[in-house]
Design brief:
Length: 79
């Protein structure tokens, strides 16, 4: 996602992606994965749009964001 590539996920993968920044397929569905790959391969506009949205969706998750979140959670545990 951070590189601007479109991604394919299942809902239970724990992804930070949203419905408009990635393709979600049912778990264990090779047919759905194949259809998603085919759609991304055949439609350059869809592929580029999804990639741009993926990059934008993930940009807030920087090392600074991680550090602040970690520190905040440590303080919660201490209290």
């Amino acid at each position: 996602m951070a590189t601007g590539l479109p991604c394919i996920f299942t809902k239970n993968s724990g992804s930070l992606a949203t419905n408009d920044s990635a393709v979600f397929v049912p778990i264990r569905s090779s047919n759905a994965i194949a259809k998603a790959i085919t759609a991304l391969r055949s439609d350059v506009n869809y592929r580029n749009t999804l990639g741009k949205k993926a990059r934008k969706a993930i940009q807030k998750f920087t090392w600074k964001h991680y550090q602040n979140n970690l520190i905040d959670n440590c303080f919660v545990l201490i209290d």
